[in-house]
Specification:
Elements (H helix, E strand, L loop, with lengths): L4 E4 L2 E2 L5 H12 L4 E9 L4 E8 L1 H18 L15 E10 L3 H19 L3 E5 L10 H4 L3 H8 L21 E5 L4 E7 L4 H11 L4 E2 L20 E2 L6 E8 L4 E8 L7 H14 L4 E7 L4 H14 L8 H12 L9 H4 L1 H5 L12 H9 L7 H25 L7 H36 L6 H42 L5 H26 L5 H36 L1
Parallel strand pairs: 5-7, 6-7
Antiparallel strand pairs: 1-4, 1-5, 2-4, 2-5, 3-4, 8-12, 8-13, 9-10, 11-12
Helix pairs in contact: 1-2, 2-3, 6-7, 8-9, 13-14, 13-15, 13-16, 14-15, 15-16, 15-17, 16-17
Length: about 575
Amino acid sequence: MAKQLIECVPNFSEGRDMDIIKLITDEIESVEGVKLLDVDPGKATNRTVVTFVGEPQPVVQAAFLAIKKAAEVIDMRKHKGEHPRMGATDVCPLIPISNITMQETVEWAHKLGEMAGKELGIPLYMYEYAASKPEWKNLATVRAGEYEALSEKLEKPEWKPDYGPARFNARAGATAIGARDFLIAYNVNLNTTSVRRANSVAFDVREKGRVKREGDKVNAPVIKDANGEPVREPGACKGVKAIGWFIEEYGIAQISMNITNIKETPLHVAFEECRKSANARGLRVTGSELVGLVPLKVMLDAGHYFLRQQRRSLGVSEEEAIKIAVKSMGLDELGPFDVNKKVIEYQLREDMPTPLLDMNLRAFANETASESVAPGGGSIAAYVGALGAALATMVANLSSHRRVWDHRWEEFSEWAEKGQKIKDALLHLVDEDTRAFNRIIDAVRMPKSTEEEKAERERALQEATKYATEVPYQTMELALQSFEVAKAMAEKGNPNSASDAGVGALCARAAVHGALLNVQINAKGLKDKTFAEDITGRAEKIAEEADRLEKEVVGIVRKKVEEEG
């Protein structure tokens, strides 16, 4: 199952003393499973923005420890800075990154609030999507009056905090905990040095747009509503703030944007709206610049959008889709675009190495043939399955690209997308199977001098063996799914590549039966016989179905070969 990832971006009221900041970030990095991505101190604001990411439980634990440490090392009675603030940890938003909903993220934000409220003696207010009151959704409302007004606010019933005591904590102040959408800082480059013209594009794009005037002239009177407020003409992109500026370093004007709602306005949509506006004004977009990191989905969605514009299959590899996104939006115009540094999930890969997948074919084969017991049959079964899915996907992509079938490109694109997902999942299991085996080895090596150590060793061994049974079972399930793509491509795909679909089916069957052997041998070591018998029984049924489907697909292919002959 894909990992749930959330990002946490706490803002601490200290931006000058790096020793204090390090004490806080050390707490964050002490939590296993959390990746510290960025530490951005500001001297003028006397504020540091920290960014870290991971699965929900460790992220919440790290956030709790950071809030606790900040309350110990930052004294709000002495704090001065240009940025609005009300506490040592001023705000602590959680942001859904992948495989997690906003509602789930809200629940984790409240878990953090409840934990901190019980143990830290700090008033805590929930804001944005986690707000308990509509008026508290806006952070500015929650923070009104800042630290200096807290003592008086907390005496009022309407300002009772969501968690923690309704009393003034002079040292730590108060903290706003929330759940919000991911924010992208994004600049679009123009072939002009004019800030005024860049602002014209920015006003076309940003949500609040521009004020309406009685004529076309810049100094024409502003149109006002019945209340005397300026009437605005909304811009094209919801959840986007934008302004034009000139960057001396690059010698060009840019539209500088904050995209605060990437569901309403994905990155590629903001780019396209800038391009349309620029073209209409006699300007040209030459490229763009991402400031900070983005979730993988942002880049894949952009790549798929531009592939769709080209009427090309969306079922290309992850790497190819990102390359298309980078080139289409000119993200590498002002400097190299390092995807490993710009995509959050790729940053996390450093903590989850894939030694087998990073090898070339020769090295992988040599490692398999060596005296080491891993990689073994489980990893090879997963890789053979991935190759089978890749072959079926290749036929889908070739069919989508076939000139006489231009009208069917979307049909084959959908099949290619299915195949790519199965292939990627199986590739993940190549290294995961070895990791599962290594967990057994680690358990075997645990100390067993005392009865307590023996019991703990046995518990760890059983858990590891169970996982080593589940991983090849996942290989079987995924390889079985690939038959659907192989069969469809054998029947409907490019007839010149029918044999490739057949080889894909043969690989899928080999993967199923190879993984079955691993399920059976590992299940024998389990004391939980009910689980062992159940997973073995289900695995054997998958193998029977794979046999049937392989014969069916190969039969279709042989018939086509005979017809061609």
